[in-house]
Amino acid sequence: MLADTASTTTEPTTDADHLFLVRDSKDPDGPVLSFTPTEWDAFITGIKGGAFTDPA
Fold it and tell me: Which stretches of sequence are listed as region Disordered (predicted)?
């Protein structure tokens, strides 16, 4: 699990189709985002490269 200082928690996992699934662990019945392996790799590369910044 990943968490930030605002106590927002996401829960990543994979499914039988090898998709990466992400949801808000505090809302288990809420929406789930799904990513292909290529999309997930691009997301992780963006994080490591500093593509996302804290809006605060």
Answer: 1-20
Q: What is the pLDDT of residues 22-52, one digit of tens each?
A: 998 888 899 999 999 999 999 999 989 989 8
- In angstroms, the first-to-last Cα distance of the chain is 22
Q: Is 44 helix (H, G, I), strand (E, B) or coil?
A: helix
| 44: containing domain | 2-48
Ramachandran angles phi, psi of 49, nearest 5°: -90, 0
In-domain check, residue 53:
no
Q: How far, rounded to the nearest angstrom, does the alpha carbon of residue 10 sit from its chain's CA centroid?
A: 6
